[in-house]
């Protein structure tokens, strides 16, 4: 891998990994999770709005994909992180890859062999071990794990839909997803949450704005742009598999920055999860890559 691409890949993984730590710290301490997600997607929509064009015959699919990838998944994911540690959340989110493969088999009629089936089973078993062990520690609830799994299912569903969209550039898709997603998220936060504006007038305004800036300009703009840039220059599987580094960084950040506990069950379960996902990615040829290759992981 050329040095320039390697540096950008590592920076992208660093930003995405630390972003999960930021989400956990922010939603767990001083801001409602769906409100935070709505602010994020609104700013992304404003920034990317100059890129948007109407695509006749495609807008219905774009809207549905946007609700999955820019709305429902963020509502579930940010709320999930309010009930799950950053390290556990990062591992649970790795289920995006096996869930996407399963949906691709069901809806796109893709074929998978025994190695990828084994990878799916191992990854799910690993997450199960992590969830059960962390539930006893009180830092992570099964509700948080369930919400994160549902978020990955929503993201994977959106990725399947994106697979059928043609002629729309990735950053323009991200902009449309932000438009439709922010509409959903504002509706959700106004319906389910209360006193959201209090964070904008209290002492938490500055840490909130700092976290939101990192989310928008770091995870969304820099992270997604870099991902698409790398996809254009490197084999898809090389980029997809290397993003496992973001998970490792998130786990390290949760432990060393937030002081989250690490048990032997978490270590074993984590190795199982990363190993299972790694098998899936390695055994997926570029020309038959899962929809995860089409759109960047929404952990970011």
UniProtKB/TrEMBL annotation:
Gene3D superfamilies: 1.10.3730.20. Residues 6-131, 143-281 form the EamA domain. One of its GO terms (cellular component) is membrane. It is found in: Membrane. Pfam families: EamA (PF00892). It comes from the Bacteria. It is a multi-pass membrane protein. The chain crosses the membrane at residues 34-52, 64-82, 88-108, 117-134, 140-161, 173-192, 204-230, 242-258, 264-282. Its main location: membrane. Keywords: Membrane, Transmembrane, Transmembrane helix. InterPro entries: AA-Vitamin_Transporters, EamA_dom, EmrE-like. Belongs to the EamA transporter family. This is Membrane protein. It comes from Aquisalinus flavus. The lineage of its organism: Bacteria, Pseudomonadati, Pseudomonadota, Alphaproteobacteria, Parvularculales.
């Amino acid at each position: 891998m050329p040095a320039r691409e390697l540096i950008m890949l590592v920076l992208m993984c660093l930003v995405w990994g630390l972003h999960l730590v930021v989400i956990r710290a922010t939603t767990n301490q001083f801001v409602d999770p769906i409100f935070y997600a709505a602010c994020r997607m609104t700013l992304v929509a404003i920034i990317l709005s100059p890129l948007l064009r109407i695509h006749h015959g495609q807008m219905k699919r774009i809207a549905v994909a946007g609700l999955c990838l820019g709305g429902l998944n963020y509502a579930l994911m940010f709320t999930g992180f309010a009930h799950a540690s950053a390290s556990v959340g990062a591992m649970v989110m790795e289920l995006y890859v096996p869930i996407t493969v399963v949906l691709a088999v069901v809806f796109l009629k893709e074929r998978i062999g025994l190695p990828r089936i084994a990878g799916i089973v191992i990854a799910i078993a690993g997450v199960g071990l992590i969830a059960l062990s962390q539930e006893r520690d009180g830092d992570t609830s099964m509700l948080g794990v369930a919400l994160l799994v549902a978020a990955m299912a929503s993201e994977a569903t959106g990725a399947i839909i994106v697979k059928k969209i043609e002629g729309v550039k990735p950053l323009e898709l991200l902009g449309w997803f932000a438009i439709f997603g922010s509409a959903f998220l504002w509706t959700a936060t106004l319906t389910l949450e209360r006193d959201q504006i209090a964070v904008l007038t209290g002492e938490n305004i500055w840490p909130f704005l700092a976290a939101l800036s990192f989310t928008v300009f770091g995870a969304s703009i820099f992270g997604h742009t870099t991902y698409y840039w790398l996809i254009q220059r490197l084999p898809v599987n090389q980029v997809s598999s290397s993003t496992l580094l973001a998970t490792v960084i998130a786990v390290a950040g949760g432990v060393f920055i937030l002081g989250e506990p690490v048990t032997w069950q978490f270590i074993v379960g984590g190795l199982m999860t990363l190993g299972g996902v790694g098998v899936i990615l390695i055994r997926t040829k570029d020309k038959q890559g899962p929809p995860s290759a089409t759109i960047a992981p929404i952990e970011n």
